[in-house]
Amino acid sequence: xxxxxxxxxxxxxxxxxxxxxxxxxxxxxxxxxxxxxxxxxxxxxxxxxxxxxxxxxxxxxxxxxxxxxxxxxxxxxxxxxxxxxxxxxxxxxxxxxxxxxxxxxxxxxxxxxxxxxxxxxxxxxxxxxxxxxxxxxxxxxxxxxxxxxxxxxxxxxxxxxxxxxxxxxxxxxxxxxxxxxxxxxxxxxxxxxxxxxxxxxxxxxxxxxxxxxxxxxxxxxxxxxxxxxxxxxxxxxxxxxxxxxxxxxxxxxxxxxxxxxxxxxxxxxxxxxxxxxxxxxxxxxxxxxxxxxxxxxxxxxxxxxxxxxxxxxxxxxxxxxxxxxxxxxxxxxxxxxxxxxxxxxxxxxxxxxxxxxxxxxxxxxxxxxxxxxxxxxxxxxxxxxxxxxxxxxxxxxxxxxxxxxxxxxxxxxxxxxxxxxxxxxxxxxxxxxxxxxxxxxxxxxxxxxxxxxxxxxxxxxxxxxxxxxxx
Length: 471
Hints:
Layout: H1 2-17, H2 30-37, H3 41-54, E1 57-60, E2 64-67, E3 87-88, H4 93-101, E4 107-108, H5 121-132, H6 147-159, E5 170-172, H7 174-186, E6 192-197, H8 201-210, E7 213-220, E8 224-225, H9 227-236, E9 239-244, H10 258-270, E10 275-278, E11 303-308, E12 320-323, H11 328-339, H12 344-355, H13 358-384, E13 390-391, E14 399-403, H14 410-419, E15 422-423, E16 425-426, E17 439-443, H15 450-470
Parallel strand pairs: 4-15, 6-7, 6-9, 9-10, 10-11
Antiparallel strand pairs: 1-2, 3-7, 5-12, 7-8, 11-12, 13-14, 14-17, 16-17
């Protein structure tokens, strides 16, 4: 019997290698396989267990067995230590091109937007219809935010160790507006602001909108912002703010430990430099408990907390919030002058979704989807890309930072991929200087398919071609 189930396991493994059963697909049921191979159900189950031990299958409770190709590992990117000087910010045209490309039928590996299959569409549609029937409640400006929405946010913040009242919360049009309002509340045009390097392009664009200069601080792919680098910047330059994605940063996926968050908060409070915290990926941790925000360690009211539901519920809702603390009056004033208020119906719909418990139920499945998706993408990149390629190992979120071997231009790979309708984010977008040319950011938040698999393999071929041409 032992020989028999090993034979079945070998045959199934061969079918997986041949692409009959693809990575992420569910195997046929045990009864069907029993008939197909002419063996007992117990033999099929033993074969499944053997393939699971080999790393080719993953059992999911009440769902069956799914193909999961063994991980091919790649090293993490290295943290680049560099001396920076404050410079004006100029958003790159390619960032706008990438947003426009998302409307085309390109393979969507560039922008950090979840595929609709990973979003709670049915639930949020139900809540939106519920909100739309509220009549006059939907027609007011709802400044500084619908009370029901701000109350739900206050309740969630309390679970993160940040006790606030609804009056402490300001509703915004996404986290992007929250960051811009925070910057306007604590800076003047021409001031210097510290950011992670590489940094999310949206943060760089926010700095440009406000007319600020930026100094880039080296960032470790796992540990996050270099506190040593930040300390040097504090000693050398008159910083007016520091913007950090503390949990599962974009693009590297770094998560600062609680101890490093405490040090960050303490360091900036001692220097009287406000910390603007972007926690948009905090709810998307892959395993374990939800990481605390830096705001949970703020004893000096020096942290302005910003977040949104764009990465979890829907990017199209454009619904975020901020907890400005002592800067509330200034943030409210800038919000009122810019667009008066955030739309009422999305606030009411999300408040209803949260109150009914749908959000937490959704997050449990979303976290598993994103963990599996990033692992699968990371393995595919390690297989297809040139030797010496390094890939980040995020513990949350759904983006990967790919560092190509020296001399291989990620920008050139981007241009060649775009010509073949494959959309990726080149590393140059994530810095104000000409850094990270040999890097790419990939969005993993897509159901695995033949189209995605082919696109990643094709990116590997293009990277090999660029490497050969550079020699």
